[in-house]
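Retro notes, item 3 of 5
We never archived the inputs for the protoporphyrin IX containing FE complex last cycle. Fixing that now. Sequence and ligand:
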Amino acid sequence: MHNYGTLDSSYKAAGGEAGVRRLVNEFYHQMESQKRGQHIRAMHKDNLDIVKDKLSLFLMAWLGGPRNYAEKYGGISIPMVHQHLIIGEEERDAWLFCMEEALKHQDYDTTFKKYLIEQLALPAEKIMQVSQMAHS
Ligand code: HEM
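Structure as it came back at the time:
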């Protein structure tokens, strides 16, 4: 049995700050290089430096690590920061696909990879629902 949901065990399993930043870099690399990533890549600014930093800091806290996102960027509601975007099943699945591809390049335990993608599917779903409501 794993204990990924407790304290900072997920943050540690992800390799701490360096591990999370590696994952996020690979995630955006996948988004830029995979055909399925093109459409959601185009929803971003040309320069990805800030969004990479934001996603890294957000995930660090979300995984039970240090709360540096709030310190640097303030409070955040994940569905709200995506509300201006049109996100349906295709965009949600493309995001999760890029993350799954990025996870293949990390030396995490297989159980942790599976756990992480299942957990990320929850906010991804919520983001889609809120976007659909905002644009219906
Ligand atoms: C469901 C599919 C998703 C799509 C298509 C998507 C797309 C985007 C885009 C285009 C931006 C840049 C927004 C802008 O500059 O205006 C962004 C920002 C961001 N996304 Fe996502 N995203 C998705 C899911 C997620 C998930 C699941 C998370 C977290 C678990 C996440 C975390 C973030 C964060 C932290 C930012 C930076 C927000 C800020 O502080 O300004 N996204 N996303």
